[in-house]
Each structure stands twice: as C-alpha cells, then as structure tokens.
Design goal:
With 196 residues, the chain is mostly helical. The chain has 10 helices and no strands.
C-alpha cells in the first residue's frame, strides 16, 4: 500500500469517527503512522485531502451513477432503482457526517465547492444521472409518458438523504426503522408512473 493510500484510508477513518470539523491533519498523520509533513507532500491541504477521500474512498455510488446509461433497457426499472437506492442510502450514511461538518465551517464548504468544481463534481450529479436514466427509460417506453423523471429523481434521492439523516440522528446502535431501499424504489415506481 502506498503512502498516499495509507493517508486516504486514515483520513476516511478519522473523518468518520470525529466528523470533518474536528478532524486534524495531525490526527490523520498519527493514524496513518506518518509525520504530519507527509500529508502535505501528497496533498495540497486538508480540503484537497477531504475531496480525494470522497472521490477515491467512497466511489461506488459515483460509479453506479456513471453506469446508469448502460442499464437502460436492461433488467427491470424497479430492479435498477432498487440497486441505485441501496447504493445511495449507503453513500449518504457514510458521507452524512462529513457533509454536516462542511456546513458548520463556511471556509471548508467553499473550499469543497471549489475542489469539486475543478473536477466537474458535486452532489447534483446524482440527481442529474438518475433523471437522465429515467428519461432514457421513458424514451424506450419502459416508463409511462406522464412520468416526471426530474421530480422522481429529486424525491428518491431526497428520501435517501433524509433516511441517512434519521439513521445518524437515532444513533448507530439503533436498528434502522422505516422504509428500506426496496420500499423507496417501489414508491417511486408506483407514485410517479415509472412502470410502463
């Protein structure tokens, strides 16, 4: 494992444990087993490190979003949406503490926005990708013409984000209650006329 990889792994662990606002490069270096200066040999600053953690250590959801065009016409819409929703729930559960910390520190939020802008990234890509997938399925006739792909995408992703918030608010030792991925996907299919 490279030095950079060890730093990224340590940063993901520390951010998950302490939240972004309380995470320091000193603590990340300690967990990684390096001097703090080693972080700055591999990353510009803390903001760059946080961005790289999001893009490189939590990429499965982003890969799934990028792969949605290849799912058009494949499997069932409900099956594809259920898989998407499972990945979204896991992604937001992992990243919610980091996101909440960003909003607590305007400087970090501004730096994160700028870093994501430079790599053409951002949270809007999930909505855009899901809505584009739904429009393509609509063009294939697998989704009814009355469906509203943009609204359906926004509501499904919003439900995933809220579910992550409720899970964190309840605490990690509390079993999740409420709708799961299959329930949310089914509600989107039935409520928005996504089944043809």
């Amino acid at each position: 494992m490279t030095t950079r990889d060890r730093i990224l792994d340590a940063a993901a662990e520390v951010i998950g444990r302490l939240g972004l606002a309380k995470t320091t490069t000193r603590e990340i270096a300690r967990v990684a087993g390096f001097a703090e200066a080693t972080i700055y040999k591999n990353f510009r600053d803390k903001e760059d490190l946080v961005t790289r953690v999001q893009l490189e250590r939590m990429p499965s959801f982003f890969r799934l979003v990028q792969g949605l065009p290849g799912r058009v016409g494949q499997g069932t819409v409900l099956g594809n949406l259920t898989e998407f929703t499972e990945a979204a729930l896991e992604h937001y559960r992992q990243t919610f503490p980091m996101a909440a910390s960003l909003f607590a520190e305007p400087r970090l939020l501004a730096a994160q926005r700028e870093a994501l802008r430079k790599v053409n990234g951002g949270p809007h890509l999930a909505n855009d990708g899901l809505a584009a997938y739904l429009r393509a399925e609509q063009e294939q006739g697998r989704i009814g013409p009355e469906a509203q792909p943009d609204a359906a995408a926004a509501l499904l992703i919003g439900a995933c984000f809220q579910r992550a918030f409720l899970d964190h608010f309840a605490g990690v030792d509390v079993a999740p209650a409420g709708p799961g991925a299959a329930d949310l996907a089914r509600a989107a299919v039935e409520g928005f006329g996504l089944a043809s």
